Inverse folding.
């Protein structure tokens, strides 16, 4: 029994923090898991910048409402779901992801949640579990699934490595160079064909 585990941001939808950085003119918020492997460090840094600028959840959600899936992403996902089960594994948050899931036809999503104060300011976050992508893939394997994984960032490498097949998708030159044994693709058709072959 196969299940495909896909990262969300950078693979199916644009990076939310980059879109927010561009909308607010705060370039520091363009830093993502492609740049910073330590997720806790990255999130605490982001929350500090939001606090410094007086920006809360509502302002981020206003930007998210304008984001569309990457061209071809929904079609890719629909086609893939005709072949096998698909699970989106993301280190984003429920409060960010749900409008985007609607635009993608509500695929199954496992992600994290934000801690938001009564004033709408983001106070912290709660991970679903530690090393959520790797932990989830190992749990799926423990109940009889063969996993195939794809993502673009440092926090995707572990789940890709432990899966029966794994692929980088639209990653950075640095990550591709550091992981030469992982096939890397730029187009949805190529990723689809690689996944299909691995099933």
């Amino acid at each position: 029994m196969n299940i495909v585990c896909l990262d969300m941001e950078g693979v199916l939808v644009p990076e939310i923090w980059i879109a927010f950085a561009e909308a607010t003119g705060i370039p520091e918020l363009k830093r993502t898991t492609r740049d910073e492997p330590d997720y806790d460090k990255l999130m605490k840094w982001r929350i500090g910048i939001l606090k410094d600028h007086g920006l809360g959840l509502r302002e981020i959600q206003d930007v998210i409402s304008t984001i569309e899936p990457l061209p071809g992403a929904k079609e890719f996902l629909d086609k893939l779901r005709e072949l096998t089960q698909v699970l989106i594994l993301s280190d984003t948050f429920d409060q960010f992801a749900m409008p985007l899931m609607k635009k993608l036809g509500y695929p199954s999503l496992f992600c994290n949640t934000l801690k938001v104060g009564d004033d709408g300011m983001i106070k912290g976050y709660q991970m679903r579990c530690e090393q959520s992508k790797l932990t989830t893939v190992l749990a799926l394997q423990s109940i009889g699934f063969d996993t195939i994984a794809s993502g673009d960032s440092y926090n995707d490498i572990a789940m890709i490595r432990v899966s029966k097949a794994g692929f980088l998708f639209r990653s950075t030159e640095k990550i591709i160079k550091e992981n030469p044994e992982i096939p890397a693709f730029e187009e949805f058709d190529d990723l689809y064909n690689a996944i299909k072959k691995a099933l």
In short: Strands lie at 2-6, 85-93, 108-116, 122-126, 146-151, 165-169, 184-185. The radius of gyration is 16 Å.
